[in-house]
């Protein structure tokens, strides 16, 4: 069964489109959102579960807030959800804005399952880039592993993988290849900016700060909420008194705009990596859904 993918930056309307398409083709939605996996992080991640109605959805609320979740876990969870939908004879629709998650199941990263090693990362973090490169080059490079050394973060991850493979000489976990058709939603820049700001205002009115305070009151460490980024990072800083409300709103609003830009940059990278995305012209949700259904399996 071919996978239908609907992707786009934040506030693009991709989820509403996926729901509309699902209604027409006996579909179910598999989320590709790195933060919607966490329970009780609803307003800040924009789950909007009421919008789904009777459309089945997967990989939302599968981890407790405060836990960590990485791409290898997502790959396993995705394939489990996909198998369930195949058994139910429902059309799977992968929808989200986390390009890494989408690409990881369409073009599997063979070594992404290697677990994070916090102690090793703590040891490597103070080292210079040159020293990190020398450290990486001292390891035997695992077969099929192409180290990405473009940033310090990726360089440290490469050392982490090489270290793990040195002590665990087992083949990488693999999943079956997937045939997919990708559709993208990308409103004009000014409209996207308007939607982002209006949505942030709405989320604050709906209790975003109360949601974050509740998480803190439950004992979730502030450092963990800072790690989740965007709404949870800046709301935590505001609630800790690091800046006033106006500064909080301005910084968070700017950060979300920058995040949307980074999402689009990643989608363009996916295209360069060979994943063809059919970018939909901006129309009503119903008209875009018509186009998706018309072109899917064409």
From TrEMBL:
The site annotation (Interaction with substrate tRNA) covers 98, 121
Q: What is its EC number?
A: 2.5.1.75
Where substrate is bound, by residue? 10-15
Q: Which cofactor does it need?
A: Mg(2+)
Q: Which residues bind ATP?
A: 8-15
Name the residues that span the membrane.
Answer: none
Sorted alphabetically, which PANTHER family does this protein's record hold?
A: TRNA DIMETHYLALLYLTRANSFERASE (PTHR11088)
Function recorded in the entry = Catalyzes the transfer of a dimethylallyl group onto the adenine at position 37 in tRNAs that read codons beginning with uridine, leading to the formation of N6-(dimethylallyl)adenosine (i(6)A).
Q: How does it assemble?
A: Monomer.
State the family named in the UniProt similarity comment for this chain.
Belongs to the IPP transferase family.
What is the recorded name of this protein? tRNA dimethylallyltransferase
Instruction: State the organism's lineage.
Output: Bacteria, Pseudomonadati, Bacteroidota, Sphingobacteriia, Sphingobacteriales
């Amino acid at each position: 069964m071919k996978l239908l993918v609907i992707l786009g930056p934040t506030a693009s309307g991709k989820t509403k489109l996926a729901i509309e398409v699902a209604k027409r083709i006996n579909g179910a939605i598999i989320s590709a959102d790195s933060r919607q996996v966490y329970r009780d992080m609803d307003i800040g991640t924009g789950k909007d579960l009421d919008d789904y109605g009777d459309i089945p959805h997967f990989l939302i609320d599968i981890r407790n807030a405060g836990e960590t979740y990485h791409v290898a876990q997502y790959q396993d969870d995705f394939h489990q959800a996909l198998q369930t939908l195949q058994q139910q004879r429902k059309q799977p629709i992968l929808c989200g804005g986390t390009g890494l998650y989408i690409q990881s199941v369409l073009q599997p990263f063979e070594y992404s399952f290697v677990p994070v090693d916090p102690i090793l990362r703590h040891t490597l973090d103070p080292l210079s880039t040159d020293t990190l490169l020398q450290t990486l080059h001292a390891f035997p490079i695992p077969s099929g592993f192409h180290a990405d050394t473009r940033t310090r973060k990726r360089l440290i991850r490469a050392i982490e993988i090489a270290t793990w493979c040195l002590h665990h000489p087992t083949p990488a976990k693999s999943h079956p290849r997937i045939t997919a058709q990708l559709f993208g939603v990308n409103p004009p820049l000014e409209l996207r900016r308007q939607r982002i700001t209006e949505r942030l205002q709405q989320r604050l009115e709906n209790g975003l700060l109360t949601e974050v305070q509740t998480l803190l009151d439950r004992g979730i460490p502030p450092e963990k909420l800072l790690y989740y980024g965007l709404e949870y990072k800046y709301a935590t800083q505001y609630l800790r008194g690091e800046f006033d409300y106006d500064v909080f709103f301005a910084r968070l609003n700017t950060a979300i705009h920058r995040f949307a830009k980074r999402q689009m940059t990643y989608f363009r990278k996916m295209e360069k990596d060979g994943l063809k995305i059919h970018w939909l012209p901006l129309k009503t949700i119903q008209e875009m859904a018509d186009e998706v259904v018309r072109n899917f399996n064409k």
